Amino acid sequence: MSKLGDAKILGGIGSILLLVPGVSIVGYILILIATKYVSDELGDKSVFDNMLYAVIAGIVGAIGAASIILSGAAFSAITFSTSAIAGIIVGLAIAWIALIVSSIFIRRAYDTMATRLNVNMFKTAGLLYFIGAILVIVLVGFLILFVAAILQIVAFFSIPEIAPGMQPQPMGAQSQPMAAQTPAPGMRFCPNCGTQVAAGTAFCPKCGAKLPT
Questions:
Q1: What does the DSSP assignment read for 9-70?
Q2: pLDDT band at 80 (very low <50, low <70, confident <90, very high)
Q3: pLDDT per residue over 109-136, tens digit each?
Q4: DSSP, residue by residue, 83-115
Q5: Cα–Cα distance between 49 and 162 in angstroms, integer?
Q6: Quick check: 201 and 183 in contact, CB under 8 A?
Q7: pLDDT grade, residue 81 (50/70/90)?
Q8: What is the secondary structure of 151-169 as a DSSP string?
Q9: Is 92:65 a contact under the CB 8 Å cutoff?
């Protein structure tokens, strides 16, 4: 099985586990591994880096928020003050900001994956993660985040076995871009998805990528 095939399974399963309380950390790990495989297959390190930053931001935010809330509660229990309320507010604010930062990196990773893998569901999921993170403060964001998580599952299971613009090679050989082949007279290959297009075309009719002049 190709790396994209592994990413398809690991990412899909990981996305499902994110919705299961108690094992969501396993889901994050599987998604990280999946994006690493995608990053390696596409030769684009930014995919994995952005997802890694997203996970780190989420973890740091959660730990920071929990620490402030617990510290405030402990201080209030000792001094009999109402500082626990302030601690909860500050902790929730930190968690909210961390969630937004995490969603920005997720969106960057998924935008790249959507373009390079021709799976637009990733772009939609990334956008909903960002919108949901912002709207969490008014609660409707949780519903949007849930929808984003569902679309993320569909997106990972929609990953092709071979990246667009790549062709299968004999066992043990590395895939080569279609652009390395010789196009038909008056034609050229789209550098993004490998589709043959007329030489004077400005945008690829299949993936929409702007073609070099």
A1: HHHHHHHHHTTSTT-HHHHHHHHHHHHHHHHHHHT-HHHHHHHHHHHHHHHHHHHHHHHHHH
A2: low
A3: 999 999 999 999 999 999 999 999 999 8
A4: HHHHHHHHHHHHHHHHHHHHHHHHHHHHHHHHH
A5: 22
A6: no
A7: low
A8: HHHHHHHT--SS-TTEE--
A9: yes
C-alpha torsion sign, points 106, 112, 113, 119 = positive
Amino acid identity for residue 78 in this structure: I
Q: Which has more confidence, 161 or 171?
A: 161
DSSP 82: S
Q: Over 60: is that where the pLDDT of 160 sits? A: yes
- Rounded to whole angstroms, how far apart are CA atoms 72 and 88? 7
What is the distance between the alpha carbons of residues 69 and 83, in angstroms, rounded to a whole number? 10
Question: CA neighbours within 13 Å on the CB side: how many for 67?
Answer: 7
Q: Rounded to an integer, what distance in angstroms lies between the CA atom of residue 124 and that of residue 111?
A: 9
Residue 40, C-beta contacts closer than 8 angstroms, at least 6 positions apart? 3, 48
Length of the chain: 213
Residues 6+ apart with CB under 8 A from 184: 196
- pLDDT, tens digit, for every residue of 16-47? 998 998 888 899 899 999 999 999 988 889 99
Q: Which residue has the higher pLDDT, 169 or 164?
A: 164
For residues 149 and 80, give the distance between their C-alpha atoms in angstroms, rounded to a whole number: 42
Q: 3-class SS at 31? A: helix
Helix (H) or strand (E) holding 7: helix 3-17
